[in-house]
Amino acid sequence: MHTKNSVQKSPIPSSLKVDNLKHISDHGLNVQFTEQKLKSLIDYLRTKEGTTALSAGKSTLEITKLGCIVMTRLHLATSGSGYWHESIHYQDSHANLFYKVKRQDGTKEQDAFDTLRGVIFGEHTTSDCYRKAQTLPAVWFPKCGADSDKLRDWLRDFAWTLTGVSGLRAQASKQAMKQIQSTVSSAKNGIDYQQGVLVQLRTEDSYFFRISHERARGICASSLKNAQDKADHISADKTLLAAEISPDTLFDISTKYGAVKMGAIWQEGGYTYERGFPAKSAVYSHTLRGANYTATVGEDGETVLLSSGINCEFKRSEIVAWLKGNSPAPKTRYGVVEKVECATNAGEAANYLKCGCHYVDAARIDSELAQLLKPSHVVSLSSGKPKVLIGEDGFSARLAEAISEREVSIVEMRTNTLRQFSEKKHSLTEREANLPQLLIVQAGRIENAKAELAKAEKALADSPALLGAGFESNELTARAFINSQQVNFSL
Known about the structure:
The chain is α+β, with helices and mostly antiparallel strands and about 500 residues long.
């Protein structure tokens, strides 16, 4: 008889979120959660072979584990009936080898997933509307010449799927090798770039800076002349508009400021058009956007935790240093972190951190980040305007408004030109004064780049022992078997 103390608690939490299921579906059992209950769940799933079902509301995630292979099948409540998000993951954390085939990435990937599923897990029921039993997908059984051509084309990329687990490991090795080779190539390019900068610094003498100042003055003068020419054209148009002109001449002038031909109407002899300004909807000056997640900081004061339950790959101190201008933006597997200026759904200014498809409201973390992410932009809502045609009341006012907006843009153009010239002049003066120190700093950067290259080359030299070869031999094995079947399978 079980007592209260002898009943074991299920390691599967009863209150999972849909975001939790999505993260597991996307990353397999390599996902890194922060909440202890979710960590315990992943640890439990890593030790459990077979199929486990998780649910969040009416959404369901099936996880099937076989050694290093993890198949995830996610059905969202918002998806259509019978639609599953399916992936097969190869995950060997000891060798640091990871690879994923996602069925929804394309038609070829769909056949690759179905092939791997059949080779590794055996016969299964398809998730489409036919619900039929299959081991391999239809691409393996060509019925005509076109099908055979399709199969041969598909085999160029996915012949390895016939070797199942071995093929997945080979692809993971190939991917890891490419990443290491890319690091070496990037390090070499980094050295070339830094050496190029050093060569450029050594050519910068008094003559170079004098020519650079003259070029900056020339660019400024050209931009100011361009602005003046535009102002002169507007002045000439206003002079014409003050006189008696024909509707055709009025329309020709108006097209410079947004008037168009609209609403083609067929009449005997051809089409006629309405002429005037089209209707304009009311729009916000910035994109309306809501944050996907809110963020908090862990007990260590550094780890950034998302509301979905995972850790960010950047630390709080890295974000603060970047926002203060003391370091570059942090890099993650999803790309470089960006600050996005936008508007909330209520039309208020907001700054979010963008990382991949994640928009994070990091201003709520603490007062320092709230100050660093305090919006400096102003969100405005332009008023909508109805369509107005030549000859109608309001056309002259609409044209005058468009001309006024163009005049304002010219003033802004002049202001920006003078500001950019001032900044360039200051930059050149400061660079000339600090040139000896810049040469020393650049030499140090080259040495750091050489150290990074040495580190990358060592990783490349060590990689065969760590990863092993295999992707070429696996592909050859698969092709040999395929050729022996003469593209006429009966599996």
